[in-house]
Write a structure and sequence with these properties.
15 strands, 13% strand, 400 residues, Leucine-rich repeat, LRR (right-handed beta-alpha superhelix), alpha/beta, single chain
């Protein structure tokens, strides 16, 4: 059951507890207007849920500010079949939640996020012991916590069946810790190492060899990485579908290196690529990336200030299945650089580019399948140009 973003009261939660004791899944995340005077009644309501919903397997309590370690203890102790408890943006949940985790060894997913940036959450030995007790753990999610290599090595020691690992914006661990974990847990499918500032291209190349089943990876804000890190990922991870590597550095002229070109391997599985806000990315880089991912469907180049229509045109020729293209804030883009049909393109974002009516005419002629076109702050287009698009792109549902 999903309670859609409503103003939740403790009485509502008690009503659920009284009337729906057979619920197995309950999503109460991100309630609107949860006031301080609601906290006591909501706390009691969640406690009532833990006592009544005896079949409960999954619960999402994200942004319930009153959720603390003690309430998590009640949930884990009372809900015998609990497998997943999501507590994102719950500032009162600390490493002291270890006592709760010990109560429920059947947990398969754990989610912890530091919301109060002024307070660092330090991992304790008790917490590490509690994680090791979760033998069926498939999803490990930490955001903003100060973790340690000891924690990662302990997870590795247990060879937990983890498929999803998120350590976004975490501190306190090093390459040694993550290598230790991934060398033992090689069935990871979803990996998020955002803001891992120690990672460099060599690290990513080595880690990629440990991830044969990887489907999705996020390496955004890893500032020591360049686009060269993408190529070993594509080569070593044949199941890879999605790559996000935003806010990273793209080296100039590296593509001219013959040894680099020799290592490039086509990955027909890759469908999603985002290098948004990588301010130094050049046409040559995205052309090469397109060449090794011919079945790409979604490409995000937002705020790639050096990209021009010459690069975009070659990308669209190499990747004819692209459906979603974000060129917002690509301030040098005058057009799509196309003189051929692009029938698969459905969503095109040209916010803050320098496209004009002539470019819109070509787009309307070549991109007949457009469903959504975003033209915010495109100062060189007129009403006439927009009307032409509306007239020709008969499937268009939204234009901004």
């Amino acid at each position: 059951m999903y309670i859609f973003n409503q103003h939740q009261h403790g009485t509502d939660l008690k009503f659920i507890a009284d009337c729906f004791p057979l619920f197995e899944e309950l999503d109460l995340s991100y309630p609107q207007r949860l006031l301080n005077n609601d906290y006591v009644s909501c706390y009691a309501g969640v406690k009532a849920i833990s006592l009544s919903l005896f079949k409960l397997r999954k619960i999402n309590l994200s942004r319930h500010d009153y959720i603390n370690d003690e309430l998590m203890f009640h949930l884990c102790k009372n809900c015998k079949f609990l497998e997943e408890a999501i507590t994102l943006v719950c500032p009162l949940v600390t490493p002291g939640v270890a006592c709760a985790l010990h109560q429920r060894p059947t947990l398969k997913s754990i989610y912890f996020e530091r919301f109060n940036v002024s307070k660092t959450q330090h991992i304790t030995s008790h917490f590490i012991d509690s994680i090791q007790s979760l033998k069926d753990l498939t999803c490990i999610y930490f955001s903003g916590w100060h973790i340690s290599d000891k924690l990662l090595s302990s997870i590795a020691k247990e060879s937990l069946p983890s498929r999803r690992l998120v350590l976004q914006y975490c501190t306190g661990y090093t390459y040694s810790g993550i290598f230790s974990l991934l060398s033992k847990c090689q069935r990871i499918q979803y990996l998020d190492l955002r803001d891992a500032r120690f990672l460099n291209n060599t690290c990513v190349a080595d880690l990629s060899s440990l991830l044969p089943e990887l489907v999705s990876i996020n390496l955004s804000s890893c500032h020591k990485l360049s686009h060269l890190a993408l190529f070993p990922l594509v080569r070593n991870c044949p199941s890879l579908i999605k790559i996000k590597m935003e806010y990273t550095y793209f080296e100039k002229n590296s593509i001219d290196n013959p040894n680099f070109l020799k290592d490039c391997v086509v990955n027909p599985q890759l469908k999603y690529l985002s290098v948004a806000s990588s301010f130094t990315v050049q046409n040559e880089s995205i052309i090469m990336l397109a060449a090794i991912s011919p079945n790409l469907q979604r490409l995000n180049l937002r705020e790639c200030f050096c990209i021009t229509e010459e690069g975009i045109g070659q990308v669209l020729r190499s990747c004819p299945k692209i459906r979603h293209l974000d060129l917002s804030y690509c301030i040098k883009v005058k057009s799509l650089g196309i003189h051929f049909e692009v029938p698969k393109l459905e969503m095109l974002n040209l916010t803050d580019t320098i496209v004009d009516d002539e470019a819109l005419y070509v787009i309307s002629k070549r991109c007949s399948g457009l469903l959504e076109l975003v033209l915010d702050n495109c100062k060189d287009i007129t009403t006439k140009g927009v009307r032409n698009v509306v007239k020709r792109c008969t499937q268009l549902k939204e234009i901004n």
